[in-house]
DNA sequence: CACTTGACCTGTCCGC
DNA sequence: TGCGGACAGGTCAAGT
């Protein structure tokens, strides 16, 4: 599920809801998704919420950080436990009552509210790490990660230099590599390559400077538009209130195989690269 | 090194 | 209605 815009949507939601709350209990329904000592979290307060690549961090007092990766189907749903549901609650409307069949961990807070970590496929995880070591040991704690595309210093030259570390890799596959650029996944590679009019099968070392510039623009435009639309919901993604995102209503190619392309008489095509679906318009993307 | 496939899991959808 | 197979916002390890 979540790529950069979806994780960012969750981050923005959590920021408004849980900063300042104190954790009173952690229930591990699927213990293997939780790494570390959950008892350490009792009585700790939420300081702030951050995102790096597709990971979400919740900093707590006592130098503790909860690090989440939601992988394909992870959800973080916040519910004000004391509010009685009387016909028309966004979470209930979308997902039914919490917890549900896919709930893997439940965090409880001192005001009676709860944060539900749901994950149908159980690929996701959350772990406890020391906040103060993240900066110095990012590679060890978060993995090898390329630059954040929405940071100011992410220029088209930075994009080019990083992608060129994999000269003979198809551009679509290179864009998915988190060690080259962080946060971009299957939806936004297809979308940004369409905006740049670049064929996803092209090898990185055949891309011209003009094309790197257009690709840079396409990445920023698709990520920003998606955050504005609350992310992409294909099947599972919802924000912390259980609501879907609407970026896919504005998508050009993702999930549109067999449908007419927006700007030419041709149809959008789906191919497989590195085991994942790629969508593009063979007429527009050269 | 470059690239593909399978594994991790559960659920849904589509064709027979 | 049932069953098998393909497929799903991600990432690893292992194999060619």
Automatic annotation (TrEMBL):
Organism in which the protein naturally occurs: Candidatus Daviesbacteria bacterium GW2011_GWA2_40_9
Quaternary structure and interacting proteins, as annotated: Monomer.
CDD domains assigned to the protein according to its UniProt record, in alphabetical order: EcFpg-like_N
Listed name of the protein: Formamidopyrimidine-DNA glycosylase
Annotated Pfam families: Fapy_DNA_glyco, H2TH, zf-FPG_IleRS
UniProtKB keywords: DNA damage, DNA repair, DNA-binding, Glycosidase, Hydrolase, Lyase, Metal-binding, Multifunctional enzyme, Zinc, Zinc-finger
Catalytically driven reaction(s): 2'-deoxyribonucleotide-(2'-deoxyribose 5'-phosphate)-2'-deoxyribonucleotide-DNA = a 3'-end 2'-deoxyribonucleotide-(2,3-dehydro-2,3-deoxyribose 5'-phosphate)-DNA + a 5'-end 5'-phospho-2'-deoxyribonucleoside-DNA + H(+); Hydrolysis of DNA containing ring-opened 7-methylguanine residues, releasing 2,6-diamino-4-hydroxy-5-(N-methyl)formamidopyrimidine
Cofactor requirement: Zn(2+)
Sequence similarity: Belongs to the FPG family.
GO BP term (any one): base-excision repair
